[in-house]
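Good morning,

Attaching, inline, the backbone tokens for the sequence recovery test we're adding to the shared suite. The designed sequence is right after.
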């Protein structure tokens, strides 16, 4: 008997059939991958299982008994724990408070048993390989560290069924290996795992079975050991993908568009490099290397302590994002949920944020022009949404990422700083993003791309900078680049 059976599950949102009669089953001590392109319905299906959404049709059967969930608490009570794709930690609470938020840790009335809470949190953090003080505020943690705290929180419920939605998106390779060891131990102890990921190589490495969704429908369930990556990708997208990293001829006589000299900040120092028109400059480094902080310093999102920035041969000062935008510099942050989107507004408003000043006259916005520009970039990036008026949070993670990129394409930026531009995006959408990046550089746009994925760094970059402990360790031309050389630079070998 299956541990979980979801039979004929359907879910409708205004103008969208998110799920159409989907069947899914989970066995005891199994890691079952749920895969598909952005908008395929993966997150919606697991949110129904977790009690976040109510199904419109179908049945949920757990250990032979049909269940109806009034909310997430019902799911927790029967042993279902979820680590969502979007971070849901309270930034101004510490780690221990986040892990046990909403649960009784009272020694007496209104008096928390802090010593027990801290001890249990330390044990959970050790289990996930995170060596930090549990009293640190979550806002002080990196995205990768926050992800591990979310996993620790899920494990604190001792779940029978653990749902992981893009769990490794912000993790470095070393952290991923540790995480996979945790999953293997959980399986041995009897935990069943539903695993959503766009990283097909991960699915092949750790999954027992995989169910493929496409456009809200189940395509098939396969035994992962009896299939290959190419077949899984074909099932996901309904077509064969060739040239994941589309080829592009580099501009023969490039001109320098940006020069950074000895930029200094709290977590980076002596940052010096140039960016050419029509070039993709890749930046590789381990978690904590200072890559994202350098990007934020260039965009004016955090204060720098020294150094110079030159734009087309003219020295400029960037003290805020407004300054950067005025110089036609755009920035796609690593953490789209906290720093990229405005969750209370719709898709159109999220895209038009960067160029509203251009459409304003005497305090009035040209709505017709705004609508034209937004519809154009939505079509260009193939953003899946019923209309530009839908709330941005109703879109899949990958489509939210595309919306942030669309903002800067609509602004007609000359320089783009992309921090993990394809994080949480499926293989088909990745290829589309790469093609768009190539189209932009062919028009003379200079792109600085930070990525944790070595194939992406090697496949898309014209030049590569490696960073270690806040400093640039190597500059590598594309023709000289290899995985070994990039990794050497990432670990501090110059």
């Amino acid at each position: 008997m299956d541990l979980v059976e979801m039979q004929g599950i359907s879910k409708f949102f205004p103008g969208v059939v998110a799920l159409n009669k989907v069947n899914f089953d989970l066995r005891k001590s199994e890691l079952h991958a749920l895969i598909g392109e952005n908008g395929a319905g993966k997150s919606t299906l697991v949110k129904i299982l977790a009690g976040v959404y109510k199904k419109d049709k179908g049945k949920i059967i757990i250990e032979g008994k049909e269940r109806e969930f009034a909310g997430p608490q019902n799911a927790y009570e029967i042993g279902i724990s979820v680590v969502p794709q979007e971070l849901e930690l309270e930034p101004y609470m510490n780690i221990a408070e986040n892990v046990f938020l909403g649960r009784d840790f009272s020694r007496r009335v209104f008096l928390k048993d802090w010593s027990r809470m801290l001890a249990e949190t330390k044990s959970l953090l050790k289990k996930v390989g995170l060596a930090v003080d549990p009293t640190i505020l979550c806002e002080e943690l990196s995205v990768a560290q926050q992800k591990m705290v979310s996993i620790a929180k899920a494990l604190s419920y001792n779940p029978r069924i653990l749902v992981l939605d893009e769990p490794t998106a912000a993790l470095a390779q070393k952290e991923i290996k540790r995480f996979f060891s945790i999953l293997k131990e959980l399986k041995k102890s009897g935990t069943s795992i539903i695993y959503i990921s766009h990283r097909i190589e991960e699915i092949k490495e750790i999954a027992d079975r995989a169910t493929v969704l496409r456009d809200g429908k189940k395509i098939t369930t396969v035994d992962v050991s009896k299939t290959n990556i190419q077949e899984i990708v074909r099932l996901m997208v309904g077509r064969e993908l060739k040239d994941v990293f589309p080829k592009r001829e580099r501009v023969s006589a490039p001109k320098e568009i940006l020069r950074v000299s000895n930029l200094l900040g709290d977590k980076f120092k002596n940052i010096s490099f140039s960016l050419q028109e029509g070039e993709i400059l890749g930046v590789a480094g381990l978690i904590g290397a200072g890559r994202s902080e350098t990007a934020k310093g260039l965009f004016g999102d955090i204060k720098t302590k020294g150094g110079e920035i030159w734009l087309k041969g003219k020295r400029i000062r960037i003290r805020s994002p407004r300054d950067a935008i005025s110089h036609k510099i755009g920035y796609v942050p690593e953490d789209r949920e906290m720093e990229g989107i405005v969750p209370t507004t719709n898709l159109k408003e999220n895209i038009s944020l960067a160029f509203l000043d251009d459409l304003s006259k005497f305090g009035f916005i040209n709505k017709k022009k705004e609508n034209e520009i937004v519809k154009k970039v939505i079509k260009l990036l193939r953003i899946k949404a019923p209309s530009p008026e839908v709330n941005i949070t109703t879109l899949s993670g990958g489509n939210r990422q595309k919306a942030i990129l669309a903002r800067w394409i609509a602004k007609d930026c000359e320089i783009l700083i992309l921090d993990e531009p394809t994080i949480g995006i499926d293989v088909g959408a990745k290829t589309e993003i790469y093609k768009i990046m190539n189209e932009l550089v062919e028009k003379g746009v200079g792109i600085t791309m930070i990525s944790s994925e070595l194939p992406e760094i090697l496949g898309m970059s014209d030049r590569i900078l490696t960073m270690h402990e806040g400093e640039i360790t190597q500059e590598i031309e594309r023709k000289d680049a290899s995985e070994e050389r990039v990794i050497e630079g990432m670990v501090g070998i110059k």
